[in-house]
Amino acid sequence: MRISPPTDPAARVRSGNMPPEAWLPQFRAHAEHCGYSAHTVAMNLSALREFLSYLRERDITAKAAQPSDVASFLQISLRKFRARLHSSPKNPVVWQRRYTAPINRFLRLVQRQWPPPRPPRGDHEQFHQEITEAYGRWLTEINGFSKGTLEKNRRIARLLLRWLGPRADRGSLGCLTVADIDAFLAWRMPALRRASRYSESVSLRSFLRYLHFVKVLDKDLSVALRGPIIYKYDEIPRAFTEPQIKAMLHVTRRDHSPKGRRDYAILLMLATYGLRAGEVVALRLEDIDWRGERLHVRRSKTRTESTLPLVTPVAQALPKYLKKRPKNEFRQVFLRSRAPMQPFSNVSSLDAIIGVRMKEAGIEAEGRHGSHAFRFARALTLLRASVSMKTIGDLLGHSRAASTEVYLRLQTEDLRAISLDVPGNKPDAEMAHQR
Known about the structure:
Layout: H1 9-13, H2 20-33, H3 38-57, H4 67-85, H5 92-110, H6 122-142, H7 147-164, H8 178-188, H9 194-213, H10 242-253, H11 258-273, H12 277-281, E1 288-289, E2 294-298, E3 305-309, H13 312-322, H14 348-360, H15 371-384, H16 389-396, H17 401-404, H18 406-417, H19 428-434
Antiparallel strand pairs: 1-2, 2-3
Helix pairs in contact: 2-3, 3-5, 6-7, 7-9, 10-11, 10-14, 11-13, 11-15, 15-18
């Protein structure tokens, strides 16, 4: 099944300087391309006419507009509203969003980056920006970290620099001590779970190693930082039960809307293959080999690829969704069901889908039950069927056998729940009777 990508009007918007009268038709074409309703498009165009008129009166081009221009336009529009109706908007947030939503979408098309990055205010902020950007390059270019790890580590670096305040300028950062790090951790850690404390400790150690590597710090303070101990198999993984999965699939399959077709295909893939959320989100149209009946999966954690059989239920569910999938230039299989019709921005979107379908199925579950609950459920089903750990690991995309061992804990708890004795651990009274 081939889906030819139509040309996105946004590309024409950015292609060069356009006269003011050409902006609105181009924006209309882009909004319709993104799946916005006719009513929403009309409301957006009305707001944009006012904004472009404001820019034209001040001889400001759309490509040169700044956040201060938008703020000034909103103030003037609010004064006009009050003068015309002799009252303020009943809901100021909704009123303001009527303008800001289309203006921001429009300026994201015209300018490649909107809002534009705020320039550093003073040497202090300039130093922070320089050091975090250089740290980011060190993480990616030298150490090969992923984008997700980059953002997580840089966030902790920025947090530490802001917390240090005046002690994090060009002349003072080199005087950082273990006592400073302890004070920062005492401020930061109490509100975090143990797993989050461990993760942030790892990120902080990485930043401290970098500061020593570039000789900002004479001593490597990372060696003095110890995060909380995380024990292997510390928590029993949560899994959906087979009846729960069947109930979710049942209620979702009855929804024949484009959203229902999409959600059913997603849940079916999670239940069938035990994929990670990131692997489902990253799935592309060219990854589906219809003739060869195979599915190519990019493993989000190990950065490897797997080829899985395209089983019949999945092979039937995907075309039903793809026939109703919005036609656009995106190659990702699964897109948002509401405008703008584009790929999911993050993997948490799948957890939201699961939550909605759980509620529809009347399922109440304690703790976190997202996409990983399907993954654990699939592993548990295979364990009960006496499938080898090697085969389970291959299906789940594990690069090491130890990664699959966590599911043994799941099976042990499953056996304990039905009071099955483990051989060699008979009660003392029974052993005495046998003797």
